[in-house]
Amino acid sequence: MKKNYLLLLLMTAVVSTAIGQVDLKGSVWKLANDGGALGIGPNKGDVSWFNLGGKLEERACQLDDEFKFNADGSYENDLGDATWLEPWQDVEEGCGPAIAPWDGSAIADWAYDADKGEITINGKGAFIGLNKVFNGGELKTLTDEVPATITYPVEFSNDGNTMTIDWEFEAGKWWHFELEREITPVVVDEAYLKGSVWKLANDGGALGIGPNKGDVSWFNLGGKLEERACQLDDEFKFNADGSYENDLGDATWLEPWQDVEEGCGPAIAPWDGSAIADWAYDADKGEITINGKGAFIGLNKVFNGGELKALTDEVPATITYPVEFSTSGKKMIIDWEFEAGKWWHFELVLNRKDNSSVKTFDKNLFKVYPNPANNEITVSSTEKLSKVTIYDVTGKVMFTSSDVNLNSTVNVSAFSRGIYVVEVLTDNKTSVKRLILE
User: 309 and 324 in one domain?
Assistant: First the structure.
């Protein structure tokens, strides 16, 4: 069991959008603005042979291409003034005007078979994702016969706004495409994140590392999704009361630096969800900060400036993650140069929202001083407090009292030096602050 130190959230269920309920009529799609949105590798979801990591700006002319499933059954590629061209088209590689018949001029239609999980595009020159790929091979020159029909295996996210194509077009060769439905942008702010629960996307490119932003060529989950199921069900909870929680269930992915064999097993403290943690989102900077030793997003060993190598390493008290959100607000992307020339890449999807906290979080509810402190602290508030509790970084209660007033003094001289969390409650509010003892 994982601890939420405020014990305030009641879990709620949401109804997922089944594949058969996805309505493509009138929808317009683009490749996701993400390094793993287009790539190729030897396994499903694997983009280690090639991906867009480090090439997003260069490929802007490709990322704005539109794939239109018109309501009348017709299909259209709208590539604008320029798209990405390749040498097989008898041009230099780079942005330029689209070349017929892949220029949007194709007379085409579309059909979706939800039971088979397939989209079929009929029309020479019409395509999804990449124009050269068809069932059974790739076009090599402009004189190659252009297929009249292409069938794509597709999966959709629960909300129906992300389309994933993992396609073994030739034996042992898999193209991977991620497309997002064009919708009215969702404003992602602190209020939006409150009560949200996220998981790593069930996709080979959802966790990986490489030498450039969005690049997962050094390592990714391609071909490892079943093996890593215990990791893909880990939950990252931005609780509505301002606390943060890792809910890793009965098992998560373990690595040798934790003095265990690599594989699924019970989570090891302090990365087991027991951390007393809080979160903050700075939308202007595009950063999420997690405070609490052992609390993390995506992968437990990574922090600002390095990776943990052994259980005896000092666990950081704070980690700041650079984040971007999809237009729908349903995907969180972290591209993180944690060390020079080393980029971790995480893709998380919104699993559910839970705003059922019974108390409002108010960061200005109280003050604690002095901080840092030595022997004694004062907890001061302009509102009547019902309880004061002090936790250590493992979640152990070091002090608690309901006999409090507007200015309560607590003797902390017997506490070990280090970082603690002070929590206060009123009838309808809660707040936490970090306390440092020197």
Answer: yes
